Amino acid sequence: MANQVVLITGGGRGIGAAIARGVAHDGRVPVVVYQSRHRDAEALVSEIRRDGGHAVAICADVGREDDILRCFEAADREGQLVGLVNNAGMTGGQSTVMNVSADQLNAVFNLNTVGAFLCAREAVRRMARSRGGAGGSIVNVSSASARSGSPNFWVHYAASKAALDTMTIGLAKEVAADGVRVNAVRPGVIDTEIHAANPPELMERMKQVIPMRRMGHPDEVAAAVIWLLSGAASYVTGSIIDAGGGY
Ligand code: NAP
């Protein structure tokens, strides 16, 4: 039987790496797409192989269509695509809407929204039963900011993730009869390097508005994603799961 392959954008570290480990643990092959941190991605792939699994890493910019096509061609070489996790994302830096630039908006929407749409398109083309696929599952990694709006900090980012939530709902209905499920997970504040540029005072204030009063661990988001990818979620589509400690 062909390998079951799951393509994970932004899979080299942070939440994406936790998802890749979970996919490998389930006996599937994670195709880990990263942007530039070669060492992190290769270390992850080596770790998965050492543990008896198989994984590959691909350096690509998910903000570019030609790179996206290259990633899916590489995934095709590994076996049958059964899953996509749209996880690569960027905040674009803090700004009020009053001060946001066109460059910031274009970069954030191009990666978080356009890139995710194009990846979803490529995944559906391969997984849809009407096109000879085996069905499958798409999970979009959104953000709690899509609900809160993230005023004064990241409205641009929040809006790009809200677009992803709407895509989740609409695409789920488009492809449900074709054996493809589409869901999203909305992380709250998770302990990864995405917050590296945030001052400690801001991180402390963010923690205080989380009912659990702590940041989440990448594994706590990955668990929801892995469930949505699995057969255990076979009747779940068009759903958005919050993983934010009550936020
Ligand atoms: P992270 O630690 O910053 O990791 C980002 C990953 O995405 C890295 O593997 C990075 O590659 C990759 N990446 C970035 N830009 C890319 C591009 N243009 N093309 C391909 N890969 C790219 O981020 P994270 O915190 O794990 O976040 C993962 C997702 O969760 C994002 O969509 C984020 O918006 C969402 N999220 C995170 C939080 C949070 O608090 N952490 C909260 C809500 C939502 P390199 O390793 O090569 O740099």
Structure report:
- This protein has 247 residues and is of the alpha/beta class.
- The chain has a single domain (4-187, 221-240), classed as NAD(P)-binding Rossmann-like Domain (Rossmann fold, 3-Layer(aba) Sandwich).
- Helix content is 45%, strand content 17%.
- The protein has helices at residues 14-25, 38-50, 65-78, 102-127, 145-148, 155-175, 200-208, 218-229; strands at residues 4-9, 29-34, 56-59, 80-86, 136-141, 180-187, 240-243.
- It has a seven-stranded parallel beta sheet, sandwiched between helices.
- Strand 4 (80-86), helix 4 and strand 5 (136-141) form a beta-alpha-beta unit.
- The chain is globular and about 50 Å long.
- The relative contact order is 0.14.
- The model has no long low-confidence stretch (mean pLDDT 97).
- Bound molecules: NADP nicotinamide-adenine-dinucleotide phosphate (NAP).
- The site of NADP nicotinamide-adenine-dinucleotide phosphate has 30 residues, from helix 1 and strand 2.
- Secondary-structure-based class equals alpha/beta
- Percent strand equals 15-25%
Count up the helices: 8
- Predict the CATH topology: Rossmann fold
Gyration radius from CA atoms, angstroms: 17 Å
Most strands sheet: 7 strands, parallel
- State the end-to-end CA separation: 43 Å
Strand order of the largest sheet: 3-2-1-4-5-6-7
When the domains are counted, the total is: 1
Oligomeric state of the chains in view: single chain
